[in-house]
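Students often ask why inverse folding is considered easier than folding. One informal answer: many sequences map to the same fold, so there is more than one right answer. In these notes we will look at a single instance of the problem. The structure comes first.
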């Protein structure tokens, strides 16, 4: 193990009751709760693997090793101004703490370790090679289903001994944009995998929002209020309510079609996420927002921009016109006989032929 080769001792114990501290690296002998902790000791909360998985445990240990390897001299310089300082804590990754104006030297050390550790655990070349192999294998097995993305992330997490979140973030970093729409945890559930045209939305936008945010949008968003029947909230998306995008299973449960999951930019409304945190490192925070798992506590506000949803809004407006036209036609033909009704239908659109009407109605030419 790396820690042993570096002469470090790992001790597994409960560090804090609420598990807010994952690990600690001691640079000097320190008495903690009456117990002497020797220098070059790593304390790791023994509940990590159970609560967050083996990947989180591996990440924490390597994280502390990185502190010892890279930050020993910097830590000693900081200690000249703060002699009581003896250790660095690794806390739950609350990215709201990232604020350049108030960060201490040890905060910078912690930020560097957080950023670098996953890249050590997941080397670029080896990771891309394994990702390509697994994706080809899974695509061949499943056809064009998006299930291969989730399965690839899970395989890479197990293969490299990291969390699914870390494996997904690494995939996105290395250019696999399709991974962004997989394994996102919202409202105590994972959003089904979905993809969109490259460049359709920016780094702080999403097609997936929770029920509370969707309800607020339905109540206050003028675009949705104008055409309420044109949209439906399904699979944590506000989507156009058309058969090519929305379907029901044999139990009547509504879901997105395979086509919709492959073309979210065509049928789903996108929303801009506004941080509730005081953070200047927004790219870093957004990278984590779009890779949330069940342990994430990040929060944000949701905003809507009509400018970024013009194509979908245009479709909804056309749907409204079509619905109005259909209602008009139905009102016109309702009191008529079959023959007279067919004559009326041949006016919509103008110059409808007998053959065209037969094809659309399911009747034969002879019957018409």
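Output (designed amino acids):
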């Amino acid at each position: 193990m790396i820690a042993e080769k570096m002469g470090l001792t790992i001790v597994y114990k409960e560090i804090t009751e609420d598990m807010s501290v994952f690990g600690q690296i001691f640079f000097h002998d320190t008495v903690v709760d009456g117990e002497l902790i020797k220098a070059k000791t790593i304390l790791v909360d023994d509940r990590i693997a159970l609560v967050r998985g083996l990947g989180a445990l591996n990440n924490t240990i390597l994280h502390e090793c990185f502190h010892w390897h890279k930050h020993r001299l910097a830590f000693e310089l900081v200690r000249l101004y703060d002699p009581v300082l003896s250790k660095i804590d690794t806390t739950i990754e609350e990215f709201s703490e990232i604020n350049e104006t108030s960060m201490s030297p040890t905060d910078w050390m912690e930020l560097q370790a957080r950023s670098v550790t996953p890249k050590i655990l997941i080397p670029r070349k080896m990771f891309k090679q394994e990702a390509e192999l697994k994706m080809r294998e899974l695509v061949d097995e499943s056809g064009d289903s998006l299930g291969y993305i989730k399965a690839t992330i899970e395989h890479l997490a197990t293969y490299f001994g990291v969390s699914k979140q870390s494996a997904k973030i690494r995939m996105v970093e290395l250019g696999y944009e399709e991974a962004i729409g997989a394994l996102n945890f919202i409202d105590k559930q994972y959003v089904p995998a979905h993809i969109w045209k490259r460049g359709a939305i920016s780094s702080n936008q999403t097609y997936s929002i929770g029920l509370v945010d969707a309800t607020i949008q339905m109540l206050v968003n003028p675009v949705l209020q104008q055409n309420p029947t044109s949209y439906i909230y399904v699979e944590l998306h506000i989507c156009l309510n058309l058969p090519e995008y929305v379907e029901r299973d044999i139990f009547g449960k509504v879901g997105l079609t395979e086509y919709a999951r492959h073309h979210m930019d065509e049928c789903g409304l996108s929303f801009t996420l506004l941080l509730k945190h005081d953070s200047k490192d927004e790219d870093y925070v957004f990278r984590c927002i779009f890779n949330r798992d069940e342990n994430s506590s990040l929060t944000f506000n949701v905003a809507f921009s009509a400018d970024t949803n013009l194509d979908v809004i245009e479709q909804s407006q056309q749907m409204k016109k079509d619905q109005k036209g259909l209602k008009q036609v139905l009102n016109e033909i309702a009191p008529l006989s079959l023959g007279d009704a067919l004559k009326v239908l041949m006016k919509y659109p103008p110059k409808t032929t007998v053959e065209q009407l037969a094809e659309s109605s399911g009747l034969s030419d002879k019957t018409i």
